[in-house]
Amino acid sequence: MTVNEIAEHIDAEVIGDGGISIHGIAKIEEAGAGQITFISNPKYLKYVEKTNASAIIISQSIEETLPDLPKNVVRLKVADPYIAFLYVLRLFNPPTDVISQGIHPTAVIPDSAQLSPGVRIGAH
Description:
The longest helix is centred in the last third of the chain and has 12 residues, at 81-92. The strands form two sheets. A five-stranded mixed sheet has the order 1-5-4-3-2. Strands 6-7 form a two-stranded parallel sheet. The chain is an alpha/beta fold. It has three helices and seven strands. It is elongated. It is 19% helix and 19% strand.
């Protein structure tokens, strides 16, 4: 997924090369090339200059206190980096169905129950 595609999902302003490909997410101190991270808490500013991330989600307020980012790090400016990062987490790790559609053979269902089509009923 490109930075521009991610930016569309989180309503971000892209500063830098939005065509860079992102393949994963990581904490700012562990991020490498091809990964996206975020910063919202000033206590993590010490990692900004050393990050190897390809993209970083920031807020307007934190941008004013940011040390210089490496030139190859694309910034995605948003209102709330925490919320934006949660959306990015879901983009890279979409939720999966825990219970398959249908009724598990061990499910106990009263004869009087009325079940909707597409119902999901787990074991026991």
